[in-house]
Amino acid sequence: MAGLTVLDVRQSSTEESIRDKIIEGMCKEKKELTSLIVCSAEGLRHWDRHSADTDYYIRHEELGIFKSKANEIASSIPDGGVVVESGSGTLENVIPMLEALEHQEKNVTYYALDVSHSEIASSLEVIPTETYKHVRFGGLYGTFDDALRWLEEDPAVRDLPHCVLFLGSSIGSFSKSDAARFLRSIATHALKSPNSSVLVGIDGCKEPLKVLRAYTADGARGFLMSGMDHANAILREGHSEDETGSVPPTFDPEKWYYLTRWNRHLGRQEGSYFPRSDDVRLGPPLEHIVVKKDELVQVAVSQKYGHQERKQLFDEAGLQEVASWSNEGCDGGQYISPYAVLYRLQPTNL
């Protein structure tokens, strides 16, 4: 990865941001934990194994779209622009698009964004950058909000066309109302310059058994349970050791199970922690909180969108569809195809 720059765009430390979200979520009446707790190096190793499983259709369907539609997707990205991908992971899905951009001789800069500096480095290492003459590469170390602020304010990039990639059905990790607000925030902060857009992957599968198989596939439990270890590591800082010479964990993994279920009413998968048997009193700094034995602590959701739901989402976000791509045989309206579409969106006032 010689010569590649990873820019630190954080407004505050990532750990402080996640810490605040953990405490805020556990103090709510309906307790929840931010899904950022699974974004540790250990969690991402489990994730790579989980998402590679054949039952985890989202990764494989999205890769199929990028392989078959790479030239069309690349054609929609303007020359001289900046491409930012959130949660870069293995980059396997976007490599066909990057190769197509190079073939089209478009001078663009691709930035892999992640809250883990080491993950950015390992992601970029898989790209043979020496074979690219037109596409340049870099990394952004920080949260998605940090990246939006950077795109809006940094003189080197603020006036260039921006293409924000939000793939892997990550938009499903929000409630519908929060998803609309999130996309509106992207439009407000990152899509001001002409020809800017956001490319978002949306899952339209509402077949409960297929969804549940995907979210309980090999590696799923390790991925989600690693979040407790990461939360403990973040919350442990600044607390005193007990008589054994260690800091008691906020969450003792031995006292918790992980549950995934399909919420038919809301049309989404939900992942939660819950006590194994008895009520659980948390450790510092949340020792005043007791989680009842039948109480669920939500940590992850994956909202699925039908055709009308997608249209409503875009309307509420102030975005318009300018292009879409899907696999052959996709029928998102009937929820037959497991992975619906990739949408290219622009603000309605452009």
TrEMBL record:
Molecular function GO labels: methyltransferase activity
Cited InterPro entries: EgtD_Methyltrsf_superfamily, MeTrfase_dom, MeTrfase_EgtD-like, SAM-dependent_MTases_sf, SAM_MeTrfase_EasF-type_put
Keywords attached to this entry: Alkaloid metabolism, Methyltransferase, S-adenosyl-L-methionine, Transferase
The EC number(s) this enzyme carries: 2.1.1.261
Pfam families (UniProt xref): Methyltransf_33 (PF10017)
Chain ranges of the Histidine-specific methyltransferase SAM-dependent domain: 19-333
GO biological process: alkaloid metabolic process; methylation
The organism's place on the tree of life at top rank: Eukaryota
Pathway the protein contributes to: Alkaloid biosynthesis; ergot alkaloid biosynthesis
Catalysis performed (reactions): 4-(3-methylbut-2-enyl)-L-tryptophan + S-adenosyl-L-methionine = 4-(3-methylbut-2-enyl)-L-abrine + S-adenosyl-L-homocysteine + H(+)
Signal peptide limits: none
PANTHER family tied to this protein: ERGOTHIONEINE BIOSYNTHESIS PROTEIN 1
Assembly: Homodimer.
Family, similarity comment: Belongs to the methyltransferase superfamily.
Record protein name field: 4-dimethylallyltryptophan N-methyltransferase
Species assigned in the record: Aspergillus heteromorphus CBS 117.55
Lineage, broadest ranks: Eukaryota, Fungi, Dikarya, Ascomycota, Pezizomycotina
